[in-house]
Write the structure tokens for this entry.
Amino acid sequence: MNNWFITDLIIVLLYGLQHSLLTTKTAVKIYNKILPEYTWNFVYSIISVLTIFLGFYFWRPSEIFLFHLIPGSFSYHISVVLLSLSLFLFFFCFKFTTSFWQWLGIVQIANKISGKKSQVYYRMRNQGIKRYIRFPHHTCLIFFFWLHPVMTLDTLFLAISATIYLYVGTYHQDLRGLRIIGKEWEDYRKETNLLFPGIAVLKRFMADIRMSDSIKSEGAKL
């Protein structure tokens, strides 16, 4: 047990460390002195993908099963459907935030080559799900790590580590939005939750649904 845990712990710590270091102001300033600023998101995405592949390549399985849902069973189908749904919603949520391609940094480079002006990366977006949760795509990723039909000790460790990392990273990204946007983001934070909706936000969500239904009903009468 100790062998797999130590290896996997080192992978998780190194992954978190390099990502934390790359997003510091110092690292970004150094990068911008060497390479054009508009390439930052793309290079960062490439490094992220490479580190993920390396991490899974060296990942050690514990071979200790906590549960293994039987393929074809009702619980297995529910798990697979929810797992697929979490991945689908991850991409769907980009409809209400920065685009997926801008998130990867491809749009910035394409716009630079074509001479177009890129949209500001940090700006207010409070449509759809973002009226209630500030970083919904991160919420979907957390569910993605927990909904697998097979759970071993090492996948449990991965799910816990990913959840902690996503929360800490999202929290700092939230503070970055507050620092860049200011008062507008501060007001937005008061009306929404970071990753999961609280009671007040759920009440507002239900009120919005009732209002929407009422408007549709009035429209149908007309």
